[in-house]
Amino acid sequence: MRHREPLSLNALLLVPSLALAALACVAVSARQGVLAAATTSTLVLVPVVFRLWTRTWYRGLVVRGLGIFFIGMHVPLLLAGALAYGRIGCSEGGCPQLYLLGVLASPIAGALSTVVYWLIGRPPV
What we know:
Elements: H1 9-29, H2 33-54, H3 61-86, H4 96-120
Helix pairs in contact: 1-2, 1-4, 2-4, 3-4
Transmembrane segments: 34-53, 65-86, 98-120
Protein name: Lipoprotein
Keywords: Membrane, Signal, Transmembrane, Transmembrane helix
């Protein structure tokens, strides 16, 4: 008789976090600012509150999480810039919607990367 491993709490929070990030991206593309702000704030608050209640915080975790936020925030900006640069006719500023989408999605990507880091981050050895 094999005993099953209990399901990890990180795995339980990772799926809703990804779903909230997807919903926030859809809200940004549909230009629903209130829904995008609500899902992004929920994306940040739920795992942070969970982490505060269930885990011990070690020195530097918050600072590293903020660094990961700034790194993750730049990914949509770089992708939107690269996609606009690759399109014909966008080199002279013909694609402001693509740039705007990257700007609007950047806080969502930053929040998601911070949440994932705080959920799976381990203390340095």
